[in-house]
Amino acid sequence: MPVRQEKDSLGTVEVSSEALWGAQTQRSLQNFKIGGQRFGPEFIRAYAQLKKAAALSNRQLGKLDEQRRDLIVSACDEIIAGQHDDQFPLVVWQTGSGTQTNMNLNEVIANRANELAGSERGEMSPVHPNDHVNMSQSSNDTFPTAMHMTAAIAVNEQLIPSLDHLISALNHKAENFRDLVKSGRTHMMDATPVTLGQEFAAYAEQLAFARHQITTALEGVYALAIGGSAVGTGLNTHPQWAETITHEIAGITSLPFSSATNKFSALASHGALANLHGQLKLLATEVFKVANDLRLMASGPRCGLNEIQLPSNEPGSSIMPGKVNPTQIEAITMVALQVMGNDTTVSIANSQGHFELNVFKPVIIYNVLQSITLLSDGMQSFTDNCVVGIEANESQLKEYMEGTLMLVTALAPSIGYDNAAKAAKLAFEKNLTLKQAVLDLQLLSAEEFDQAIDPRKMLQP
After folding, report:
1. Are 320 and 442 in the same domain?
2. Do 163 and 197 sit in the same domain of this protein?
3. Are 182 and 247 in a shared domain?
4. Are residues 149 and 129 in the same domain?
5. Phi-psi sector, 431: left (phi>0), alpha (psi -120 to 50), beta
6. Which one is catalytic: 9, 187, 318, 395?
7. Is the preceding omega at residue 301 within 30 degrees of 0, hence cis?
8. DSSP secondary structure string, 40-55?
9. Adjacent-strand bridge partners of 12
């Protein structure tokens, strides 16, 4: 394979002539052959948006000439458009500051900019990866800035739309099922009546609460580290650099990014992302609860609860003909468990900010983005292939409602708790209806029982 010579501070490295990257990227490829986990294109494109904003800002502040600005911006626009996705091959498991990935961006942008100017790859002229593309920047402030940018974009463009789609579907089912009275359950045991609609409305509200926590957590993510330079002091930057580039980033992304008030904190800790992921974990727990309830209500169809019917998407068994399983529920609950596990990684990684720098940045953003993607895709699939197709088995709901002994709760105000408990116990032991047990104990007349026991009157205060 044809190669060219690229240089960095350690010397000369051979790089494939087909590659836009340079010496530092090549060294990382050789030194970190660990797994196959790479940053997705959404992270690379956000980083390119940051580099574009940097070129525009450096020009505004008089530090970069127009020609180099235009070349860098053109190269960044190509990356943002997805034209060079194969030029970012580095794995997540690298230096904890993300320096190699930052240099991967710098080198690709510089080489492509120089091509656009008519120069050869590796010449570093007229655009140098460090002097021009990385001007006013450090990996220590650009990488966390790209982390925040990508997480905020992913939440707004992927997670919230999928979550809203699921909440809307649950609310729609709540309205459709609002008149279907059924036996409630507490401790997995029979309880007083509810409607199927009330249960689905509760599911929607639980997810809406998690949504609110996530959007609130975004406020911290919108604060960017850029301008902190190497350790938070802003060394080698213009006094107006932080505000200028943050304004450019906000304009490019159409999101309300701001400059972090304390750059030392923004480099040394990733509490904002840890907090965001904590709310993703909250969402995962709520999704798990909803899915588990649906799994139980759909169990059967003849030897379980069979209160609802889930869509039949595919055969469920290689040996049992006709079996259909709740596969979408199984998938979304596995997603939820993965997110809960990711939260442990993010939490421990955030605790490892030593002095002026947290050096677990790549693993933090990798897990945050994985959780956002899994939840977004999982909720979309769960909604479209399960929730929207749920149907109620009204005859089964009615049968359970008529058979539950917990209707006796409505009698407690008139016959007392102890007598009500005696009636329920007698009905269970003798396999009687609740009405017959009350009559046998001579606690009420038939007319009084019928007036006291009306499940629909037990659905509200």
Report:
1. no
2. yes
3. yes
4. no
5. left
6. 187
7. yes
8. -HHHHHHHHHHHHHHH
9. 7
431 in the same domain as 320: no
Q: Which residues contact 171 (CB under 8 A, 6 or more apart)?
A: 200, 201, 204
* CB contact at 8 A, 371 and 338: yes
Instruction: Count the domains in the chain.
Output: 3
Coil, helix or strand at residue 280: helix
Give the model confidence (pLDDT) of 296-344 as tens digits: 999 999 999 999 999 999 998 899 999 999 999 999 999 999 999 999 9
In angstroms, the CA 419 to CA 425 distance is 10
pLDDT at residue number 1: 81
d(C-alpha 11, C-alpha 456), whole Å: 81
Read off φ and ψ for residue 214, nearest 5 degrees. Answer: -65, -45
How many angstroms separate the CA atoms of 294 and 156, rounded? 28
Helix (H) or strand (E) holding 366: helix 361-385
User: Looking at 16, 125, 312, 317, which residue is catalytic?
Assistant: 317
187 flagged as catalytic: yes
Shared domain check, 302 and 239: yes
Report residue 38 as tokens: 């790479």
Q: Are residues 435 and 378 in the same domain?
A: no
Q: How far is CA 266 from CA 59, 217, 281, in A?
A: 25, 15, 23
Coil, helix or strand at residue 454: coil
**Active-site residue flag, 165:** no
Quick one: average pLDDT of 384-408?
96
How far is Cα 129 from Cα 135, in angstroms, rounded to an integer? 9
Strands (DSSP E) found in 253-383 = 258-259, 308-309, 353-354, 357-358
* Per-residue pLDDT reduced to its tens digit, 60-97: 999 999 999 999 999 999 999 999 999 999 999 999 99
Dist. CA 49–CA 45, nearest whole Å: 6
Which structural domain, as residue segments, surrounds residue 448?
Answer: 404-458
Average of pLDDT values for 28-46? 97
The string over 49-62, giving b where at least 16 C-beta atoms fall within 10 Å of a residue's C-beta and e elsewhere, is: bbbbbbbbbbbbbe
Count CB atoms within 10 A of the CB of residue 402.
12
- Decide if pLDDT at 418 tops 90: yes
- Examine the domain organization and report whether 272 and 418 are in the same domain: no
Q: Are strands 223-224 and 258-259 parallel, antiparallel or unpaired?
A: parallel
∠ CA(286), CA(289), CA(295), 5° rounding?
A: 145
DSSP 15: E
Determine the pLDDT at residue 283: 98
Give the CA dihedral 183, 391, 456, 192, nearest 10 degrees: 10
